[in-house]
Amino acid sequence: MSANRDPSVTSEPEPVDDTASTFHYSLSRAVHARKSEYVKPHRIRIKIGSWNVAGRLGTDKDLASWFVDGKGVERRLDAKLAGMDLSDKPDTVETNTSRDSAARASAKSGTDSSTLGGATLEEEPSVRLLGGDKIGLYVLGLQEIVDLNIVSQAFYSDPNAIAKWQDALEAALPKGYTLVASEQLVGLLLLIYASPEVAETISNESTVSVGTGTYGLLGYWGNKGGITSRILLGETTRLAFTNCHLASGHDQASLDRRCWDYNRIKTQTKFTPINTAGVMEDDGDMLGDEDFAFWFGDLNFRVDGLPGEDIRRILMLHSRGEYDINKKQTGDSFSDDGVIVLRNNDDDGSEGSNTPGMISREASFDKYHSDESTELPEPDDFVPDPADDPASLQATLDSLLPHDQLKRMMKERKAFHEGWHEGAITFLPTYKYDVGTVGLFDSSEKQRAPSWCDRILYRTRTDVNKYEKKCQDEIEAKKKDEEMTKLGIDKATDDESVLFDYDPTTDSSNDNLPYEDNTYEYDEYDEAEDTLEHVVTKEGFVDKINLDIYTSHQRIMSSDHKPLVSMFTLDYDAVVPELKAKVYAEVAKELDRVENEGRPGVTIIVDGKDSADKNKVTDGSEGIDFGEVGFLRKETRSLTIANTGGVLAKFCFVGKTSISDDEATYPPWLEFKFVRSLLNDDGETRDPLGDEITLEPGETVNAVVEAYVHDLAHVRALNDETAQLEDVIILRVTDGRDHFIPIRATWIPSCFGRSLEELIRVPRGGGIRALVKERNKGGSIPYSLEVHKSSPSELFKLTEAVESLAERVVADENMLEEAKVPRDKPGWPFDKGSWQTINSEDHEELRAAIIEALEEDKPILEIVTADVPTLKRFEIVSEVLLLFLCSMPDGIVTTPLWAKIEQAIPSIGDGRVTLMAEERKTSILDILSAAPYYNISFVFLMSMITRVASEIVPLSKEESEALNTRKTGSLGKRSLSFRRSNTGSGVAAINEAAIQRRIAWEKKAAEIFGTAICRAPMPTSAKERKAVEDKMRGVVEVFLRRAEP
């Protein structure tokens, strides 16, 4: 890349007032005002190639020759190249000196390797386009990389095809070029590669595919359609590249379909939002929002209104050099059936297709003009326009182009009319040729008329704005016309301004000419082509673009289409990150000074994070680092805020998403509070003060910032690395400046918030933390890893601990009077409302210790020591178990499994536990057996709940039998009599109160665990939601009833 050009930054740095003023410069505005200091001009070349390879084998071997090396251009078949002084364009077109040397040596020996039907031709200097490492961005669009006539390939992408073309291009590119975008849509392929210098400035790549082909069950297939890739260059310039293949066919219906294809691709393409410096835009860009757009591919627009045979014959005559009868003719004349071979000696050692260098059915090319025609003009002489010569190739092309469908559609505003440009067409049509030939158009039975099916268009943001303004002007002009029509001719003179106030300088009617007049009139030699067009980008920078070359490679003969190439020079402003960071720091410092003078001002000091470095303090600009933060583990940092200004300072914390000054919105994982001092006389943190603090000059106040990740959805996002513990809090000073305090923490990957399929792939020993350390990366656990367990070890440890503690708590009750089990509270210890120890001081500390033990695969009961009362341990472990189950995204009864259960047992939530209980159990287990790991975990959990029920609300054998044989209608109903019933002498009495206690406990436990393990779509209606929850309860409840030992 080169930066040898005038800076395109149009604004000078804005001075910052050294005194207090009535307005503030925002930080972003002040930094932008100094953009000339961190935005530097860059220049790159963009090379865009398009080729329909027609699904033919061997075409990939020609890719290096034409696209990277720039070979295969036939000067005589491009009017612009034929008349170009090669010394004039050394930066875009080069002479193939090796071939020239070989030609001269051949001439000296009396032989010539290039012959047409035995006629000897003198070699003229061959040319090649700029390539290699002189190109900053290579953009390749291919069509029909698979055979679309094969049904299976016409609707599905072949992964081997993209690999073949990527390998071919990477082998041809210079070392160090980086793949920026790669996307296949059936036969379409878009590849973008950047040089090392350019690649490091590219960001926000977003690629979208839109199918427009055959309509099927899944929408429009991709046998036709478009691929568009958006990139951000240098943090300033948005580029969009679209490779397309539109509908084929020569009739009107096909033409209409091509226009429909274009509009569908245009409207359905939406990119991901731009993210710059951590700030994401609200909406993603659409086509038209970019600064520069390039649209290329097989657009399939044809030349119509002329006999195809006439077009072929005229172009054949030009190819043979026989159209101008005044020119000297060379070579022998052949009949229409004659076959002439011209071998291509551009690169004898290159790997290309096995087709001959050049084959033609017609007579030889006329290689040279007469001496008079080749005489160079004097420097002061006017160089004639080749289009002025009626016998020239360009004049013929100009006579065909008015019949080009694309030009007509642009005029009629049906397609590509929104500011799109195309370079001058000075080359032969790109379609359709006999494979292996140059200049020989379709000789098959169909004899298709030659057409420029393959095109490369481009436009800028300026072009789009001009088009939109023109449309708006037309609407306004139409309204004025309608108003004048309503006035009537006889009343027109009533408006004196019509006759006497007319100002021709303000009349924009000439700007609103219909498109069919000359808006898109073809001009093959537009003088503006060689000048850089100035474009103001969306970010406010001034870029420039120029089309350097637009031509086809006639000597590439392995397809019935000729490859097409455009080369652009782009001058753009790119942000230099190091310079911007320096400017940012200087501006922030300067704004601090300006805004603090005569205004409320505070200074923020971040205290050390622990006692080891409690004397270490930093200012608030460096932010707060909490270090490692885990699930439900609190980390606290403190700030000291001092009023260092000369007036009262009133301030409060607000979140960066705050809507107004009165509303404080904080990140969900952070909490803030002001305290007069950190510790009171007892060594405890004082009660928090209000949300807004007022300090006299010289006074200080402390603030406590607490990091606490508790939301399960947030935990899942952190585990998947789709969220980070990074944020910014704002200390807003009334009538002063805002203080931005960056806050960051490092997330400790947790087993909570992960699916069962992930957890069974965690190896034994070390837990999730050991796995993350071994893989040296976080994120979700790939399903490709080996399965180590049939059920998550975390679930096993928790259920085992719950069962053990259930036995111990009952044993403690029998030995200690104070260890009373709250059997009268249904669902204890799983019901949060029944917990007795939740408010204890060490509750959160013990819970965090259990979670950490699970993450490190350590025994739970060894972490929570025996000096903690059993009842307290029992409640905390039960709480963690429920947290673990609720955090699993797919639960244990997944959504698909739930749908099958609901279909098989629609009345599962009707409360009939005993009736058909065994049948329902069997049906549920049969459904779960389709997912063995989920089935094992479900059975495991049901067994634990049943055992806990037997310990906490036990029944005798007789009471259990009575409960299991009782009719459904009597379940849950208390008997009117509390007498103990006997079925005969010697038979134990049945305690009805115990049975009712057991029923209530089972119902509450089933309700808790049902919603914890089942995943189903939840209706918005409260009534419908209750019905779904009842069904979830029913699934668990049928497994809780079993005979007591």
Summarize the helices and strands and which ones pair or pack.
Layout: H1 27-33, H2 35-38, E1 39-52, H3 63-68, H4 79-82, E2 93-95, H5 97-108, E3 115-116, E4 119-120, E5 127-129, E6 137-143, H6 151-155, H7 159-172, E7 178-185, E8 188-194, H8 196-199, E9 202-211, E10 215-216, E11 219-220, E12 225-233, E13 237-245, H9 252-268, E14 275-276, E15 279-280, E16 292-298, H10 308-320, E17 340-341, E18 359-360, H11 371-374, H12 393-400, H13 405-411, E19 421-422, E20 454-460, H14 461-487, H15 489-492, H16 496-500, H17 515-519, E21 533-536, E22 542-552, E23 564-575, H18 577-596, E24 602-606, E25 618-619, E26 624-629, E27 635-643, E28 649-655, E29 670-675, E30 692-695, E31 700-707, H19 712-719, E32 726-733, E33 738-747, H20 756-759, H21 767-775, H22 793-815, H23 843-855, H24 860-863, H25 870-887, H26 895-904, H27 917-928, H28 932-952, H29 957-965, H30 992-1013, H31 1022-1037
Parallel strand pairs: 1-6, 13-16, 26-33
Antiparallel strand pairs: 1-23, 2-5, 3-4, 6-8, 7-8, 9-12, 10-11, 12-13, 14-15, 16-20, 17-18, 19-20, 21-22, 22-23, 24-25, 24-27, 27-31, 28-30, 28-32, 29-31, 32-33
Describe this entry's structure for a reader.
The chain has 1045 residues and is α+β, with helices and mostly antiparallel strands. Helix content is 32%, strand content 19%. The protein contains 31 helices and 33 strands. The strands form nine sheets. A seven-stranded mixed β-sheet has the order 7-8-6-1-23-22-21. Helix 22 runs parallel beside helix 28. The longest helix has 27 residues, at 461-487. The protein starts with 26 loop residues before the first helix and ends in an 8-residue tail after the last helix. The model is unreliable at 1-25, 98-123, 329-374, 496-500, 508-530, 610-615 and 967-987 (pLDDT under 50).
